[in-house]
Amino acid sequence: SSLPKVYEEIEYVQNLGCDIQKLIGSEVTHSTITDGLAKSPWIHFASHGHLDTKQPFKSSFELHDNARFTILDLLKANLPNAELAVLSACHTAAVDQDNTPDEGISLAAGMQFCGFRGVVGSLWAMDDAVGPILAKEFYK
User: Residue 58 in contact with residue 104, Cβ under 8 Å?
Assistant: First the structure.
C-alpha cells in the first residue's frame, strides 16, 4: 500500500510479452525471492530499498511485513542464470561516502558480485511515480 504506482509498473513489465512470474504482497518472502533469483535470468525488483550506512552488508530490499532481503542474503543465493537485474527502489546503487569511501558496497554491487552481468540501480531516493516511467523507458 505504500507503493501504489507499483501496480502500474508491474503491468507495464507484464505487457512486454515475456513469461513473467509476479510476486506481490504476502508472496514476497525470503524463500520466494531466493527461488526466483535462482531460476530467472532477468529480475525486476519494485520495492523499497534501504541503505544501511553503519553495516552496508545489511542494506536491503523491503519484503512483505517489513522483512528484509539483504546483501548478505544475496551473497548466500545460488544464481546460475543471472543476467540482468533492474532495481526499481531507493538507494540501490548508493554507497556511504562518509564512512566507507573506499568501498562500493550497495545492493547493485551485490547483484553484480553474485553474477548479474547488468544491473540498473538508483543513487538516490525514488518517488513511487518514477517506477512506471523507469520501466517504460528502460525496456523500450
Answer: no
